[in-house]
Design a protein that fits this description.
Pnp Oxidase, Chain A, 22% helix, alpha+beta, 129 residues
């Protein structure tokens, strides 16, 4: 399933500005920071992100064809602010929602959608998380 584009437009204008108030501090909320591949502009968007060891998983509620997903895949890395800590995530890859590589906390929410973005948190040892 994918959330309709009309909902995405509404969220961008109304919901996202509100969620930006708590997303960096209240897991599983987080803020993805990325750079536009064409414009070079820095963007931040609230997402639901789960961490297991050095792995980060974000359920792609709008599917894999959104600009922010294309931007981070083109860059090969992005930053995420979660629990008020900035983490660098490398090797972003879109996987099916039933992939065994998804962080444990994301497995249930992922059931309602088709894809999940996985990445590796740079400089974090598995036992640190």
């Amino acid at each position: 399933m994918r959330i309709p584009y009309a909902v995405a437009r509404f969220n961008k204008k109304v919901t996202n500005p509100i969620q930006r108030q708590w997303a960096p501090y209240l897991p599983p909320w987080a803020m993805v920071e990325h750079v536009g591949r064409k414009s070079g502009t820095r963007y931040t968007i609230p997402v639901l992100a789960w961490v297991e060891g050095d792995r980060l998983s974000i359920v792609l509620t709008y599917g894999p064809d959104t600009d922010w997903v294309k931007n981070i895949q083109a860059a090969g890395r992005f930053d995420v602010v979660r629990k008020n800590k900035k983490l660098t995530v490398v090797g972003p890859v879109v996987v099916p929602s039933d992939s065994p590589d998804i962080a444990k906390g994301a497995k249930i929410p992922a059931r309602g959608f088709d894809y999940v973005l996985n990445g590796t948190i740079a400089g974090v040892r598995t036992e640190d998380r």
